[in-house]
Amino acid sequence: MKKIAWLLTLILLVGTVLTACGDGDSQKSGDAGTTGKKLETVRVGIFKNVTHAAGYVALENKYFEKYWGEGVKVEVTPFDNGSDFSTALATDQIDLGFVGPGPSTNQYLKSKNFKVISGSNNGGAVLVVGKESGIASPKDLVGKTVAIPTRGSTNEISLRLLLQQEGLKVTTDTSGVQIIARAPSDTLIAMRQKEIDATLIPEPWGTQMEKEGTGKILVDWDKIPPNNGNYPLTILVASDNFLKDHRDMAKGAIQANIDAIEFIKANPDKSYDLINKQLKQLSGKGLDNELIKAALSRLNLTPDVSKEAIEEMAKVSIDAGFIKNVKKEELDLSKFLDLTLLDEVKKEKK
């Protein structure tokens, strides 16, 4: 009897130890965000531009729910510019979303609490000049006023690079090129009323100005620097907290983004209506499908991200004073990009 009692005690003791070890592993996995409890609501930020087409299709086709689960509510917040978006991400008003590298890099160097996890679109901005502005080449921009969506935006960085290529300076008088910030919808009105001479603006605004006859595209998307249009204009970013606690869901967002890119490439005609539905919801106004088609032709949808291009743009921001207290030779964006989940998704798709 004593021997049997001893064996029972030993079995119970081993079971207790194994259970404790299992609990420890489960807790560790949960901390990594792989088996932790899923959020009931995920807050997604996005712009009111066709350059965010992959995000629109992912929302319309419910790709996020596909990877997050049907019970997860996707709460979408539209933004007019990257500065507001980046501030919202840094202050925990949204969890992840689509933005340009210019303002997000500026904000990251201040708060350092979010990361780039995937690309979504390369290029898609154009330089438009007024039909009666007399501007026939970028060199004619001297003494002219050029609008960009917001200060420090990716579009302003591209404009400054373009002016550098032409040997032109940014000034506050007629000796150089004057840059002003206007929301795209206001820029459209300003172009109609001839209050500005030109604008470097994301699609579909450039196409719209050209179609209605108020402006003409002087420098097309595939000639806009850096890399002749092959630079990240729309990237997918996520907060550090979201990545830490829900890394599996961040991976799902990347998968949704890639699925949307593949859908648009395989089904362009079907995509126009999907994109238009989101534009109507986000801005209250849709576009003619032919306009969306023309705008999409100027995008290079891709999940790939060029770290070198983002660094080049960041250095322009430093020179322009948008990034302060950082010297170009000391710039370190190695922790700004976390493409490990993107690499995992790509390997799984092979």
A few lines on this structure:
Helices cover about 50% and strands about 15% of the residues. It is α/β, with parallel strands linked by helices. Strand 6, helix 6 (about 155-165) and strand 7 (about 180) form a beta-alpha-beta unit.
Keywords:
globular; 11 strands; 14 helices; 350 residues; 17% strand; alpha/beta; 6-stranded mixed sheet; 5-stranded mixed sheet
Task: Please explain how this structure is put together.
By secondary structure, the chain is an alpha/beta fold. Helices cover 48% and strands 17% of the residues. It is built from 14 helices and 11 strands. Strands 2-1-3-10-4-11 form a 6-stranded mixed sheet, sandwiched between helices. Strands 7-6-8-5-9 form a 5-stranded mixed sheet, with helices on both faces. Helix 6 links the parallel strand 6 and strand 7. Helix 5 packs across helix 13 and helix 6 crosses helix 13. The radius of gyration is 24 Å and the shape is globular.
Topology readout:
Layout: H1 2-31, E1 41-47, H2 53-60, H3 63-68, E2 73-79, H4 82-90, E3 96-99, H5 101-111, E4 114-122, E5 125-130, E6 145-148, H6 154-165, E7 178-181, H7 184-192, E8 198-202, H8 205-212, E9 215-219, E10 232-239, H9 240-245, H10 247-266, H11 268-283, H12 289-296, E11 300-301, H13 307-320, H14 340-349
Parallel strand pairs: 1-2, 1-3, 6-7, 6-8
Antiparallel strand pairs: 3-10, 4-10, 4-11, 5-8, 5-9
Helix content: 40-55%
How many helices? The count is 14
How many β strands by DSSP?
A: 11
| Average of pLDDT | 90
Strand content: 15-25%
Radius of gyration: 24 Å
- Catalogue the unreliable spans: 1-35
Identify the strand order in the major beta sheet. 2-1-3-10-4-11
Secondary-structure-based class equals alpha/beta
Shape: globular
Give the N-to-C terminal Cα separation: 61 Å
Order of helices and strands: HEHHEHEHEEEHEHEHEEHHHHEHH
Biggest pleated-sheet summary: 6 strands, mixed
